[in-house]
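Our collaborator T.R. sent over the components below with a one-line note: 'Predict the complex.' Nothing else. No constraints on interfaces, no templates requested, no preferences about which chain binds where. So this is a plain run: every listed entity goes in together, and whatever single assembly comes back becomes the starting point for the next discussion.
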Amino acid sequence: MSAQAEVLQQAFTLGFTYTRTTGLVVGRFLTALRDRKIVGIKGSDGKVIVPPMEYDPVTAEALSEFVDLPDTGVVKTWAWVKHPRGKHHLDKPFAWAQIQIDGSDIPMIHMVDAGDESKMSTGMKVKVRWAEETKGFITDIACFEPA
Amino acid sequence: MSDANKEALEPITGIESPVYLDYNFTAGQATARFLTKVKEGKLVGQRCPSCRNVYIPPRGACAACGVATNEEVELPHKATVQSFTIVYIPIPGNPIKPPYVIANLVVDGANISFLHLLSECKNEDVRIGMRVEAKWKDPSEWGFAMENIQYFAPIDEPDVPAEEIGRLKDA
Amino acid sequence: MRDIAIVSFVQSDCVRDAGARNEVELIMPVVRKVLDNVGLESAQNVDFTCSGSCDYLQGAAFAFVLGVDALGAVPPIKESHVEMDAAWALYEAVLKIQSGQAESALLYGFGKSSPGELPIVLSQQLDPYYLAPLWLDTVSSAALQARAMLDSGEITEREMAEVVARSRKNAKSNPHAQLKGDVSADELLNEPTYLSPLRKHDCCPVSDGACAMVIATVEQAKKWGKPYAVLKGIDHRIESAHFGARDLTKSPSTEAAAKAAGVANGPIDIAEIYAPFSHQEIILKKALGLGDDTVINPSGGVLAGNLMMASGLSRIGEVAMRIINGECKRGVAHATSGHALQQNLVAVLEGA
Ligand SMILES: [Zn+2]
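Returned assembly:
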């Protein structure tokens, strides 16, 4: 048996620098974000899904009926990030939340900048904080904040 | 961007979403052993206990037999060209100016080849079976890398017939 | 379906950092041992080999191909790989045997998660337009699910702590476990939250390691002359990638897979459930239709050590070995994949 070698280590970064085509449904949502607007889509059962899906998760029917929505909503469930990770967009404690946009039925996941865990509660009202510059990306919604 | 400009924007059809993930790579035990020896100016392979093949660089296993390789074998610095290619295309980040030769080299006593540079001869003269020798950098520049060998250079020895390259010779 | 025999199973220790061991050095000891247990020389002696792993974990493209060096794959063998937990490699091998293309198979799974930031690496499993760019990590998505459970009144924080306390206690008899010991629910509840409502102990640890299994038709297992457990049913189902479209407090995919695998066709003595977060064990116990007479996670489960891409196969192996050792007659094993129990596999095992 050979003697133990020292552990050789090397830090490295792996980059996946892909561009993606959005398709019509995702593209419509991202285009609306660029205009600081939120659109949902009607599912087979008439429920409004945000962000819009291309196919109904139950019936697999192709979806196409878009619905304009406000930039306010209600927190359905949340988690408090005491120690944000390096990749997270907010560098101070924040909440992840499922947010049911007013006028929709299926909630979306985003961040809530509430300052303190004690400010968070299920059922609280929140409002979009738009990014300073919008470009047609999910982070055009910088985060939500208590409304 | 003013609102007037926005109206004129095309709908979104694509996004750029680069992802960068950070890792701390750890070399395997066999690789770490090998590179530690390379840092000392030595080429040390590993012999399969089952088929007796010698692997360099070793990965700690004989892929043919599926058994661990532990026995270390120090190998000479002479090798035979098993195959080669002349690179004409500049490769981003590579300081070597094309055209240059990259060769599959089988070190004497080993049964698999590795890639390295071949120099000190005309590119047109490189051929399969050609005998070469490692040209090491100055020891002050040695690290845990095969770049400790600057390149391999031809030596005045008869060519090895293609069918004999990398074949185990009775020790 | 044809009955399939699980003949041999081996798992490595769960360690936080396997350090200098590369994928071959992780795989080879378990593959060697699992073959030795059956009296087989190499992967040449089985009809099919399938593995489960994810190159993103250690950030090495095609690491799974390098792993083949551990098998003795010369001359070439019939070999396949799933970029998933090796429980799904077992599923592929079962299909291979069911369709008559193989009589025996070697399976293995391995994960070297220590080189990267695992919860962040796994965030890239998500929808690449809406979620992955937010870097929603796996601990955070599980925490959203836990809050939904607590809000719905389905569970309490004490019940979550009790799951952890039992895991740590059971793991004391598991030589491969990473986290074990005697700790009370009260002590655990005194700990601060980590990613509220989760406390650190509600989350599985990050582990490096591997496991391997040999399966065969019952006829082949008899020829080998080795004891075996019988895989009576196996099925897997998946739920929507849109979190909002799922009821996170339930696991309908597990329910459907359990029904198809035939969990309810007899009493279940033991269950090994792949619940990386404490509250998920409670969701899954319910979805699997298990009562209080079933012993849950006698190994300690993955809260005691979680080999990404191998823990699912390990759950099945744990149950198989307990049946082979005569500890129980009938058991269920569960594997999960993705965030917040998105995809689930259920296997039912019985004595020969
Ligand atoms: Zn060999």
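Summary for T.R.: The longest helix of chain C spans residues 23-38.
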